[in-house]
Amino acid sequence: MGIERKSLSMDEKERLHTAIHEAGHALAAYYTPDAMELYKASIVSRGGSLGATYFVPSEDGETSMNKSKTIAMVDVAMGGHIAEKLIIGSKKISSGCLSDL
Predict the structure, then answer these.
(1) Around Cβ 32, how many Cβ atoms within 10 Å?
(2) How far apart are CA 62 and CA 5, in angstroms?
(3) Rounded-to-integer distance, Cα 29 and Cα 31, Å
(4) Under a CB-based contact definition with an 8 Å cutoff, are residues 26 and 18 in contact?
(5) CB count, 10 Å around CB of 5?
(6) N or C end of the chain: smaller count of CB under 10 Å?
(7) Tens digits of pLDDT across the chain (101 residues)
(8) How far is CA 35 from CA 13, 82, 97, in A?
(9) 91/88 Cα distance (integer angstroms)
């Protein structure tokens, strides 16, 4: 993801919105069958992102996925968007959702 962007100053509102977004990914991963195991979520900005949710890689080094795992991945990717829509409101959804898919 790159080095921490210490020069980026986010106000409290932006931090809260980023936390809501990343929490959406984390909750979707936790409650979605066949989703990858959650490792951690962070609102420390790195590279081009304001936050990130990390997952534990599969133990068998799986290179292809079945349909249920693929759908679970999409569900988790959309979790940030849905969290923003539910908590912040549909008119204030951030552009952070663009890179999730």
Answers:
(1) 17
(2) 32
(3) 6
(4) no
(5) 15
(6) C
(7) 556 656 667 788 888 999 999 999 999 999 999 999 999 998 887 777 788 899 998 777 667 788 999 999 999 999 999 999 999 999 988 887 888 87
(8) 30, 17, 19
(9) 8
**Residues forming beta bridges with residue 52, ordered by sequence position:** 42
Q: What is residue 38's three-state secondary structure?
A: strand
Burial class (CB in 10 A: 0-12, 13-18, 19+), 97: middle
Domain boundary assignment for the chain: 12-91
Which entry of 22, 59, 62, 84 is annotated as an active-site residue? 22
Provide the terminal-to-terminal Cα distance of the chain, rounded to the nearest Å. 16
Strand partners, 55: 38
30 token code pair: 């936790």
